[in-house]
Fold each of these.
Amino acid sequence: MIQGNYGSSAPLPAVAGNEGVGIVENPGTSQFQKGDWVIPAKPGFGTWRTDFSAAPSELIKISKDIPVEYAAGISSNPCTAYRLLSDFGNLEKGDVVIQNAANSSVGQCVAQIAKERGIHVINVIRSREGDELNALKEKMKAYGAENIVTEEELAHPSFLDNFSSLPKPKLAINSVGGSSATSIAKRLGQNGRMVTIGGMSRKPILVPTGALIFKNLTFEGFWMTRWILNSCPEERKAMLDDIVGLVKNNKLKLWYETVSLDSYQESIKASMEAKKDRKLVFKF
């Protein structure tokens, strides 16, 4: 949003920040109580500030039984992963999903939520030097990710033999674009769907013509902001309650790093670097 590349923007002057959690200091006559944790009900609230006043309808109460960093970021990546696995592909236990950028924040959530639902995930990552690659794979395995392959391994003829025990993927989740998107689309089964949620490579999606025609593939996009704007409060609360339950039951682990606002320039720069595996959280 700060770069001007997001799907929506706030009229200037504006306060940055889509995600965050606040503490109710003065509930007035609302349903909230002093000390409650709340998150914005809609995107574009402007969370990078120390204090704010809001109407009760602009806020959602969130559980205090999870780490505060989790509460601050729960409305974005975990919710995106939840909706992808709930709304696309008619996924059932035993089905297969393939995703690129599998070590991203959304990818981490997809792997863990899918595992809890009995859905297999083929996790595609960019190749790295030997020790770095092995360390990343071990970290991903530690939070439950399985079937971890590099982009090169995905394109190799041996891929089909190595994963012959799994059904063809019903859903592909694309966060990269370019040749990476083409590679995961080629692995989809009949009537498969590819959902794009990002474009890290800044390259267009190249659709494999044969797969598109003979497999009857569907290509579409998903934007969590649009879902929020079109959903009802009860539906969003049910989703948040499910995600909080996963966290409390140690079924969903997230990676955040709390940083001081004094270092915001360095932090913003670090957040834009490639191969990052955690989100940064400002503490005001």
Amino acid sequence: MKAIKYNKTRGLYMEHNVSIPEIVNSNNVILKMLAAGICGTDLSVSKGSFPVPDDTTLGHELCGVVHKIGSKVKNVTVGQRVAIRPTKGCNSCYFCDTNIPNVCPKGGIIKDRGFGLDGGMAQYILVDDVDVHQIPDDLTSSQAVLIEPLSCLLNAWKISNVASKDHSKVLILGGGIGGFHLLNYLDFIEVKNLTICQRSEDRRKRIEKLGYKNVTVVSDVSLQEEYLKHSEDELWGFDNIIDCTGNPDAIQTAYNYLRPGGRFVIYGCCPANTFIKVPIQDLTFKEKHISGSFLQPYTYGAAVENIVKLARSGRLKLSNYGVQEYSIDDYKSGFADLESRKIIKGILLID
């Protein structure tokens, strides 16, 4: 079978003679892949800036159809389309016992499909039954690819612990796939005071054209100008800030926009060995909170439900997301277009 892999020497490449996986355990499921998303992290892997074992098959945003099942699999049958949760923990450590398997030292990213384990940019993949979620017929395979990123964003939203959907002021940094996906979901659940900050004028215009009623779209420059006008006014600013840029400079600047009692959640993946400076007394006296958000601990099922709702409401149009589909054989174009910012997201269709 065909599979897209990464190797430090060869870089990103397609292997044409990979063995099709076989059932090993009674709870195994073999999937024939239908679609896989190209994520910013996949792009980082392809550039060598996000380490993975040599010859790992990429792909963690996945949709497939059940091809074979083990003898004890009960939750799916052959022929059903499913989305695939890519992450798991060891189920025996402190972190798994306290509901944060995403930071499990024996699981988490180590057992994440496409990073520590082979992913789904291939014609077939072997997974466990607990990792597959049925999807309805009216959800397209490409729409199902958006389940995994939403599951991660739901974790960030949970951590942000917004006090009031009606009154809390929420700022999303970045209008790429993560920021827009979060914005679309939060507007759908009727969060009333939303602002999204996006440096690119083209991406700001894309969001503005969609006509959100409770959303303010701003540039980083205009937001900084507003801050300078109100820098002595503690009532100005935001109660919740969620970073989707992974840009340390943007995070550093936006900390100034956090109101007393506010929560700043860093969802975007920053480069290694980058830092921000925060006045500790400001954290203490004003009870500000800063937290990271990583992967999707127990949010994947909720993401499936919400993606279906978004699709049925008409809010999951791929054109609105800046998505472009490619055949798996044309994977190089997908990665190149994402890197050049010609597209916001690429999806590989797998035959």
Amino acid sequence: MAFFSKIREGFGVVKKPGAQDGIIAGKGPKDIPSYRVKSVEDLKCRFTGPGLGACGVHPSTEGESSCDVCCAAWGERHERADGVAISLYDEAKNGRVNPGDPIADVFGVMLYRNGSFLSVADGVNWGEKSRLAARCAVHGSLDYLEQNIRHATTTQEIIAHLLMSFDNAQKLIINKEATMTTLVTCCVCQVSDGRWAVCTVNVGDSLAYIYSPSTHCVKEITINSHQGERDVREAGGALGPSDGYRPDLGNLTCSFTFVEPEDILFATSDGVSDNFDPVVIKHATSSRVAQRQDLPFLSPEDRDEDSVRRMSCTLQEEMPSIGRVQSASDVAVSLLRHVVAQTEPKRRCLEEATSSPENEKAILSRSKLLPGKLDHATVAAVQVGMFPGNPTEEQKQKCETLAVELFNL
């Protein structure tokens, strides 16, 4: 699949590399600064979901994947590397299948002694083939990185390996005859002078962020992948058979930034990020000819700034059963609690329409005026820094208890 090769070598760049808020971005490794890195080594734990997550892909032909992925190997939760995926859709009545089932988001996190990987995919549309595409994307990307990242000696080489991991994901999607999916994969690494950095590649609208517990601020790493006018109905790009066997790499972006120890890297599907968008939650309009005169107009740049500000405010709040957000697990739970609450009125309205067929048309019209977007919603997060030790039973229980209590997972 030659469509990744030119990008990997740094040719065919379709936009100039740029820097924004400490984020350096472009289309290939040569757009990213080259720093010597310490080898990422000594895998400590990994976790995937929802359900089987990346374990839902099983090699069907010899040589398709040499990864020993199995549910037992991927079942180690840790408060420094965690993820949760849920559905925000309304519940069906009378035993019918819930809208949006099965959840087509997939995440995977891998925590090493001196680094980590994080990956989130969001299958385009609904159904088993969409979920399979997302599973293939996360599996293919993390499988490649697990086998090859130790060979990377610079940040540019890490970006090159991330791009090759996307190529591996694309091959698996096509081999499994799946449909299309977004994908974001990040690598946390330590450069030779001791500083920490995050290298990221994304395609589509699955996005990555950094949260600083010391400043309580969020910044988006993948901001360069969606600059300009936004349309929440379009992903902007996707892996899978977009054009024959070729993916849609329209907004494929490579990003780099330095981070601090104990910062929390997290990635989301658009079911989370869109529900912080002031336009989606009816706090603003993106049109100067607004249907509602009481809403302020916001440019795409203002919308992005407002979204991360809302995320920052959410993560500053004390949560029941959590208190102050301090860990990767806390970030995932806190953000998902917010989007569940944000979309509750719309969800209840649609459930009312289901139980009142005679008023369904009027109720559905009313639901369009309510804030939020119903979707699958996923957050996966890892904490920056040296691995402190194997998770205690208390830490494992905390992660499990929070997920069960808050989302009935």
Amino acid sequence: HELTKDDSLWSKVISRQFNTTCKISTNFSPRVFYKTILHPFKKLLGIWKRHDIQFYGGGLVKISAKENCIEVCCLDVPLTHDIEDSMRVSGRLSITCDNSGNVRIQIGEEIVAETLPKIEWLENGRLHFYIKENDKLASIDLICSPLKEPKPRIENFPIAEGIFLGTYGGHGLEIIQLTLPDELTTMKDSYGLKITGDPNVACEKVTFRIIDEDCLDPEPADFDSIEDIEQLYHNPRYIKYSEGGTFDFDPPGDMYMDSPLKFKQCKGMWRGEAQVAWHGGVNPRFIPAIFVPFHEDYFGVVFLELCSMSMYRRVTKEIFT
């Protein structure tokens, strides 16, 4: 019985289970922290996808065990339009308690609440996570669902699943989840889902999808202009994807690039469709598109009707580590 009150033992338990440290002090007890906060909230640790924001804003929430606290961070796109910039934290709070179990929720040094966050499980595995202080919402009010870590790269596939930053013209950068088909035999039915959206195509909407099993077999003349690419799209020639194979990729002068292209070759090109709509999501439709993986961490999508190509960079490690 006395052994279970040993804070140094509980500090080791927390280190082993949650891969973090605890500093014992006169005001902090790892044993009380584990009982009051870590154990009740351990199922919430991880990455969560928000459903309470239709467009813009932090689309991801990271809940993790840190030194002497649980930290809740809202992850957002960079303020620039550069996909090479890192993801940023747009909001952060910490949840901790003293050695008597008195809860303290802080934003920086400011204490914003002294009661545990409320948790309500909704339909479809969604979570309502909020803080109430004196019957008023304080600091955070989220509806979200867990975001599973993507599967690793599969042999003979040009790219792995993951979370990417994508360029969307005047809307800036958005967070996209690339998902491969369950069968994992071809790229057909792979799709990109918006984690953050914009007033035209909101979050949780498919932004692009691949419609062919085999990749296109282009010739240099097929990329002289957007019109030539459209001819290839509507009169396709195919070739089986081959691991390690490459194609020259030289975008035509009449194609608008959202981001500078640093690649001269790609792994292949697949016919697809991309979703567009008027402001407010009015009249949504899918237009011809081409999916172009350049590298394990980069791909592009050509929106043929818009005469533009969006670029995407993998940010999975930035989110899950």
